[in-house]
Amino acid sequence: MANLTSEQAKQLSDNFFMLSTALLDFRVANWDSLSKDDHQILSDARSKSLEFGEQILALATSLIMNEVAESLDTINQVTTDIKGTIKNLKNIQKGLNIAAAILVLGIAVLEKDPGKIGESIKGMVGAWGEG
Amino acid sequence: MRSFLNLKNLIFLLAPFSIFSCVNLKTVQGFSNTSSTGLQQFEEIHYTFLDHCQDRCFEIAVHEFQLERELECECGDFISADSVTQVIYSTINGYLLGLGELAQNNLTTYRTNDLNVALTAQQLGPVSIDESVVGAFSALSNTLLRSTTDFYRRRKIASYIEQANDPLQVLLKKFEQIVQANLKGELQFKKERLYGNFIELKLNNTLESDFEKRKAGEDYYNALLEINRLEKMIDIYAKSLHEIADGHQVLYDKRDKLSLKDLAVDLMDYSSEIQVLYTEFNKLNQ
Predict the structure, then answer these.
(1) Which of the ends of chain A has fewer CB neighbours closer than 10 A, N or C?
(2) Where is the signal peptide (chain B) (predicted)?
(3) pLDDT exceeds cutoff 60 at A10
């Protein structure tokens, strides 16, 4: 048996909705002539129709998942690629910062100043670690 | 060789790149940001499938005068429906946010201050670089960097728009179906249950005084107005989903001309329409 589609489930839900309104309209039109038992039967049937309709409508939404699985995968892949591109572009900034830090380290080495060398190494590590 | 690489020649060499880099991606960024803001209004609807299930459970218990210590509601299918809705919503939103971020101008504006300071340091050993030359070099190198990265970005964006368009159209259509047909459909049931409960009250003659009748009438219409308000919000929201889909289709159709002015004009209609719907939606949400 073929699986139910979301559209078919929605149609089914609409049918239960129509049925429940028809049951209430019938009850209202014949209010005084119906027995207490008749009222109860019609009221229960209407309640059940409403509940089935609501439940099937929720199911129709879940069924959409099967229908969009491929599209979801594609968009998620594109989004991951976009994030990768953004990261690459941001890495250029990181590269510039590291270049500056290396230059500062070079100056410190030329000066043979251990204190400055230590500071510059820290600066370079910091530039490497950011982002 | 040294004279060939003076500042004037450098400017001449870099001019074409510079002109190229002036081309901006504001149109793509603007549309993505407006669309993403419009899409996120979903979170302002404040009505989910689970809310519907719990309301229904409460209404049935009240109608049938069921008194329990704890009201237990079977809402598994409704929770699943919310999960599916959330997955689709987050996927579309993630894409639009990513596209907007990638098209941002400041993404390829790099800070070269640190490098300039390092280059102009007095203690650069035997090499001495004049501060003004460093400034000019920095400006030109930034332009070159920006032009190459902008070119790279434009190519990437066009390719992402191309890959994403078909699945995005499917997702937006299905998301619209979930919101407008299914979630709004649940509200129709809520309305019908409400009507049934009050019509029973009326026809059973259980309300005796005029005061009770008027109070019941007021309660009914207040509840009805609240459902109608939610329905209107959903209708407006669904329209904006439609505009997002159409706008993205325009981006797709003109993906090779992302920098042209007429694309900006074409997309302006969609962005404006989404903004109008955004305002309309917010009015209902106040």
Answers:
(1) N
(2) 1-21
(3) yes
What residue of B is the nearest CA neighbor of A127?
Answer: B114
Q: Which residues of B touch A74 (CB under 8 A)?
A: 163-164, 166-167
Q: Which residue has the tokens 């109008």?
A: B276
Give the whole-angstrom CA distance, residue A79 versus residue A83: 6
pLDDT at B10 over 50: no
pLDDT of residue B275: 79
CB A26 within 8 A of CB A42: yes
| CA-based end-to-end distance of chain B | 70
- At residue B41's C-alpha, the angle toward residues B39 and B43, to 5°, is 110
In whole angstroms, what separates CA A62 from the centre of its chain?
13
Report the residue from A47, A50, A71 with minimal CB separation from B167: A71
In chain B, what residues touch A14 (CB-CB under 8 Å)?
Answer: 185
What is the Cβ-side half-sphere exposure of residue B89, based on CA atoms within 13 angstroms? 20
Contact list, A28 vs chain B (CB under 8 Å): 199, 203
Model-level ipTM above the cut of 0.85: no
Q: Which residues contact residue B206 at a Cβ distance below 8 angstroms, ignoring those fewer than 6 apart?
A: none
CB pairs under 8 A between A and B: 164
Of chain A, the end-to-end C-alpha distance in Å amounts to: 54
Cβ contacts of A99 on chain B, cutoff 8 Å: 115
- pLDDT of B160-205, one tens digit each? 999 999 999 999 999 999 999 999 999 999 999 999 999 999 998 8
Q: Do A93 and B80 touch (CB under 8 A)?
A: no
DSSP-derived letter for residue B180 is I
What is the rounded average pLDDT of the residues B40-59? 94
**In chain A, where are the structural domains located?**
6-129
Separation between Cα atoms, residue B172 and residue B179, nearest integer Å: 10
CA angle B267, B273, B278 (to 5 degrees): 125
CA distance A54 to B123: 78
**Other CB atoms within 10 A of residue B229 CB:** 12
Q: Which of A10, A62, A83 sits opposite B77 (nearest CB)?
A: A62
Q: How many CA atoms lie within 13 A of A130 on its CB side?
A: 16
CA distance A1 to chain B (A): 22
Residue B225, both tokens: 């107005």
- From B5's Cα to the closest Cα of chain A, the distance in A is 23
CA distance to partner chain A, nearest, from residue B227 (Å)? 16
Single-letter amino acid code for the residue at A72: L
